[in-house]
Design brief:
By secondary structure, the chain is α+β, with helices and mostly antiparallel strands. The protein has a single domain (3-384), classed as 4-Layer Sandwich (Chorismate synthase, AroC fold), CATH 3.60.150. 31% of the residues lie in helices and 20% in strands. It contains ten helices and 17 strands.
Length: 386
């Protein structure tokens, strides 16, 4: 079973991830992981933290001479800002006498519910772990999964389809062409005209002290038929993807294929007719299902979209109540983004890569990459023979 665990606080010494279940002999490049970490920090509308941190990964176990050993892989991402927080976030000892205890929960964050759940008097004990800073570990873990999938020609792309009230599209070209255009965009959109409209919108929103959300689309190509299962709800590939994407901070909705639009159409406009060709085998000419039917990948590209709410930390503060005194106040401002939807798309790629890699390892598992390749080729041969 492929699984991971992450740890670390936003202003602690480092973020850590441990991956278990990778087969041996998988070639891994830290440069490729660092590239994904860099992509997460880009985008017009990001906040001041991106100017402080330049995320780079260090692997301290499970890798030798650039290939996995089959044992747990440990990844570390150092927090450069830790040097300014060592007293306030000390692991041991007593709190400093002048420690500023955070008692003012911010609307839209985990602050109040987290403090009540874990009986914290200092909200910082909540916001440090709940922070989207921790998506750096999700991206690092996803970058590892991505390198495994690419061995089997499975590729993952993303682009923004909406930011605030501005919709992007319809777009021309293949997903590879659309993604290539989006990669060059400051806001990860494939339409240069819409890009400028969105940048102007972000500028206006920043002046207003407000924030923006957006919707991103992730597309996975090269996925074989047969990942996931209809047999139990938690084994359905669509359910697992929805869970992974909803696990990203600020994501409030997920759809697959036509998604909510499928409910607005009649059946003949939704379901993908099945065709057969001796060279191609079974195939579809449409992809309303988004590559998944009955919880199982059907061989078509997997298409998922996720809606990110506006960042809740506003420079024009919202009203709240002090946790200790119960007095009304205007919420404090932590360093924040105006729009982080382009970065969220990169995180979305990462959690999608991880989920697909998990299902792939379950289907074609083996203790070594060589064994996995044999299992994969044997399965494809059997499918082609049907």
């Amino acid at each position: 079973m492929l699984r991971y665990l992450t740890a670390g606080e936003s202003h602690g010494p480092e973020l850590t991830a441990i991956i278990e279940g990778l087969p041996s002999h998988v070639p891994l490049s830290t440069d490729q992981i660092n590239h994904q970490l860099w992509r997460r920090q880009q985008g017009y509308g990001r906040g001041g933290r991106m100017k402080i941190e330049t995320d780079r990964v260090e692997i301290t176990s499970g890798l030798r001479f650039g290939k996995t050993l089959g044992s747990p892989l440990t990844l570390h991402v150092i927090n450069k800002d830790w040097k300014n927080w060592q007293e306030r976030m000390a692991v041991e000892g007593e709190p400093p006498a002048d420690l500023a205890v955070v008692t003012k929960p911010r609307p839209g964050h985990a602050d109040l519910s987290g403090a009540l759940k874990y009986a914290h008097d200092d909200v910082r004990n909540v916001l440090e772990r709940a922070s989207a800073r921790n998506t750096a570990t999700l991206v690092a873990v996803g970058a590892v999964a991505r390198q495994l999938l690419e061995i089997f020609n499975i590729r993952i792309y993303s682009h923004l389809v909406e930011i605030g009230p501005i919709q992007v599209g319809p777009l021309e070209g293949s997903i590879e062409e659309i993604a290539a255009r989006a990669e060059k965009s400051e806001v990860r959109v494939a339409d240069p005209v819409k890009e400028q409209e969105i940048i102007e919108l972000i500028k206006r929103t920043r002046k207003e002290g407000n924030s923006l959300g957006g919707i991103f689309e992730v597309v996975v190509t090269g996925v074989p038929v047969g990942l996931g299962s209809y047999s139990m709800p938690d084994r359905r590939l669509d359910a697992r993807l929805a869970c992974a994407l909803m696990g990203i901070q600020a994501i409030k909705g997920v759809e697959i294929g036509l998604g909510f639009d499928a409910a607005r159409r009649v059946g003949s406009e939704v379901h993908d007719e099945i065709f057969y060709d001796e060279k191609r085998g079974f195939y579809r000419e449409t992809n309303g299902a988004g590559g998944i039917e009955g919880g199982i990948s059907n061989g078509e590209p997997i298409i998922v979209r996720a809606a990110m709410k506006p960042i809740p930390t506003l420079y024009k503060p919202l009203r709240s109540v002090d946790l200790k005194t119960k007095e009304k106040y205007e919420a404090t401002v932590e360093r924040s983004d105006v729009c982080a939807a382009p970065a969220a798309a990169v995180v979305g790629e990462a959690v999608t890569a991880w989920t697909i890699a998990q299902a792939f390892c379950e289907k074609f598992g083996g203790d070594s990459l060589e064994e996995m390749k044999r299992n994969y080729e044997s399965y494809l041969s059997a499918v082609r023979a049907r």
